[in-house]
Design a protein that fits this description.
Oligomer: single chain
Largest sheet: 5 strands, parallel
Structural class: alpha/beta
Mean pLDDT: 91
Low-confidence stretches: none
Number of strands: 5
Strand content: 5-15%
Length: 172
């Protein structure tokens, strides 16, 4: 899989017209995505993006349609704009609009920190899946808990001994 990241909001990335800064130039997004898809026909290409440049410039649906037209195979969408960075609450209405506008699998991202939140985001957006980011820091078992809960099983935290073993493995 080739994953193109147009979601990074870091100033040092955006100042070089990369990351989420690309969301301001839809023509260039299309050129980049087409070039990558054509260059690696044997590999699926995915796109990580945000809902737009700023709350006043949410063009996520247009970017998603461009990606689909270029042959991108899946989208992961962070529920904030570049201007929002990682502040405030993620908004899921735009992710839902993107999921409704394209035939691609859409992966919802942003503020997913529990199995309950994952289920609520899936229901609200119609996304095919969720992506966990910062919430897994210090809780690497979170994804397994979410997976278990979405499959209908109990999503209890792992036993303390298992947590300790996992953490020691990470340290090693």
């Amino acid at each position: 899989i080739i994953d193109i990241n147009m979601g990074c909001p870091a100033k040092k990335v955006c100042s070089k017209a990369a990351g989420s800064a690309l969301l301001r130039d839809e023509r260039l997004v299309g050129e980049i995505l087409s070039a990558v898809v054509e260059a690696v026909p044997e590999l699926p290409v995915t796109l990580k993006m945000r809902t737009g440049w700023s709350p006043a410039e949410r063009n996520g649906v247009r970017i998603a349609r461009i990606a689909e037209d270029c042959g991108v195979r899946a989208l992961s969408v962070h529920g904030r704009t570049r201007a929002c960075r990682f502040e405030g609450q993620a908004e899921y209405d735009t992710i839902g609009a993107i999921a409704a506008a394209v035939r691609l699998p859409v992966i919802a991202n942003g503020d997913i920190d529990s199995a309950e939140k994952a289920a609520a985001v899936l229901a609200a957006t119609g996304a095919a899946a969720v992506m966990v980011g910062r919430a897994a820091q210090g809780r690497p078992w979170l994804c397994g808990q979410i997976d278990a809960a979405l499959a209908g099983a109990v999503a209890a935290p792992p036993p303390r001994a298992q947590m300790q073993q996992l953490m020691l493995g990470h340290l090693a």
